[in-house]
Model the fold of this input.
Amino acid sequence: MVMLPTHKAPTETFHLGGIALPRLFTGLWQLSSNSWGSAPAAKIRRQMANYAANGYTAFDMADHYGPAEILFGEFKEKWSRPEDIFGATKWCVFRKIDPKRALVEAAVQDRLDRMKAQRIDLLQFHWQNYDDRGYLTALHHLQDLQSEGKIFLIGLCNFDSIRMNEICEELGPGGVVSNQVQFSLVDVRPLYAMAEVCKKHNVKLLTYGTVCGGFLSDTWLGREEPDLYSGVLTPSQRKYLDMIVKAWGSWSLFQSLLVVLRSIADKYDGMSIANIATRWVLDHPFVGAVIIGARMGVSEHTDDNRKVYGFRLSAEDRAAIDAVLAQSNGARLIRTIGDCGAEYR
Done:
């Protein structure tokens, strides 16, 4: 039995579907591949327990993140207060399907079985091909399963602004509570139409890529541009390095951004570049939480991540950041790459 600590670490919360959740989620996508490192299952479950004991009680996973759902279910089952643990998972449709009720229900039941759960706290739905509008049929079936008690909340994953608006209007108020998309100082696409749709339908973003695979950190300040094909970068780092130098701007400009972030961090006691980059995202009202990937059983950053709670960037801080961002192609990414999620289509 994993026991609760006597004192929980302070957290900052937001409300999703009427429940209070921490504004930092723990992302388990790195369990999908050994490229991020590997650890024994028991060690991973112990680290999940350590995260929860430190106030990181919300975990994000997916049907294709390797054993993430299984390990989460095993951890939650042994936690002394499982009702305090929030599990967000995904059903991702990457190929053409006929979204009949039986197929949708089977996908949901698979999530329940793997997570050892009677109800999914948050099921996030991804649909690859917008030309196939079967996503609306699938979502109506998910709503039915929600009314039957198998799903608590329904969210989206990597849907663009147009389709999110369409879905919210189709399902009605509260039908969708969240959309998981990429958002960072490098990828500012959610600032445009997505922000307006969130406000219109009271949807919160759960954001990933906020520290660009670790590039928005003190580790890379003053460093030479790494070789994309050196073999030392993680899959996430290869993805974000490609975006930084080919779409956003240049490594030199990125270093200028790190310098500014470091100067801002120096104003606040003990802050890191990653803290400032995360706080910048959290300070947007349409953002519910930032999902920070964890290499469970390999490394841990709970103490550093916790520092984002309890402070806000000043107008002066934001102006200094904006001065660098204005030199980048960030504002044009919504045209050159497309709206949120377009990079996966």
